Amino acid sequence: MDFENWWLLAFPSFFLLGWLAAKIDVKQLMNESRKIPSTYIEGLNFLLNEEKDKAIDVLAKLSVNEPDSVELQFAVGSLFRSNGEIQKALAVHQGLLDRPDLTNAQRSRAVLAVGEDFFKSGMYDRAEDFLKRVGSGEYSPHALRLLIDLYVNQNEWHRAVDVANQLQFATGRSSSREIAHFMVEISALHRAGGDDVKAIDWLRKALKAEPSAPRPRVMLGEILKSQGRYLEAIHEWSQLESESVSYIGLVADALIECHDKLGTKIQCLEKFKQLAELSPNHDLLIRTFKLSVELEGQEDACDLSRNFLKRTSDLGWAIPLLDLIKNDVAEVSKADMDLLIEMATKYRQDEGYLCDSCGFRAHAHYWRCPACRLWDTYTPASISKGV
Fold first, then answer.
1. Sign (positive or negative) of CA dihedral 246, 247, 248, 253
2. 103 in a structural domain
3. Domain count, the chain
4. Most buried pick, 9, 65, 236, 241, via CB within 10 A?
5. Of 325, 351, 348, nearest in space to 336 by CA
6. How far apart (Å, rounded) are the C-alpha atoms in residues 159 and 149?
7. Is residue 371 in a domain?
8. pLDDT in tens, 116-164
9. Structural domain range at position 23
10. Which residues on adjacent β-strands are paired with residue 354?
11. pTM (2 d.p.)
């Protein structure tokens, strides 16, 4: 049930409060309670029983019979919108705007309601016009939040940054993480246009806005790597170790490639081993194991895997070990083989990324969930799905 509709539940208590204040008797209280229209009670019952369509019909009729009830009309308009009947919601809210007797706060609320109706209908130009007219009162934060969502939907990242800064000032709450994402999107546009200098500049701005944000650090390393600036890329990604160590798995392959170009892969392996002790996530364990096989040999890699198994319940990362030994089973002890067979029967190599907010599963990591549209909800490391 929308917040705007809670007043419907509280309405009968107004009579009780009035009685207490005036010290009237029970008989008078009963007379006052009878003033509540029966259609109102009927609509309230439908709401309580979650029969929204029936509640809308009843309350819409009541609002016609009670044209002076501003709150009731706001509630009916909100019900129409939440039910997807945007044109009816617009008719109610625009009707409110035509009333000359609204207070300043009620008029701002009606302007906001019309803007939200247009936003929900996808009429962004009209929505933007109304949302900008809300002003700086109590409804300003809601209007600014909708404007940000509007600009994000239209990929107007510069405007999103500006309004997010306004929202910070209006509420006193930080929007720096979100602003950093918007700046990364601006950087991506410059990079797509071949301007790496401006792309890097915007990533630096993003890190200034939110120093602990992993995404600009990841993107900055990618640009530096593409330019052959391998040491600088490694330096940027190494900052993730102290700020967001779990995100190292996203750049593990790129880190290995940079170290390979510099002839320092053994240093990379040692670093991965240290990080795996701190954050034994799926991606990092796989890369560390494979790098150990390449640089130290199968026996040391198997010893490493035993150590990893003591630190995590995620066995899926060890499935690549089967590919390693399947053609040379004679060199593997029976205990190792039994362990690997047990893992293979419990897990399959079905890796993916999971949104912590809505549970949407994807094969790639997203900084913004394509389902619920929230930022930073995806786990930074892939997970192996059990059979």
1. positive
2. yes
3. 1
4. 236
5. 325
6. 11
7. no
8. 999 999 999 999 999 999 988 899 999 999 999 999 999 999 999 999 9
9. 3-169
10. 361
11. 0.76
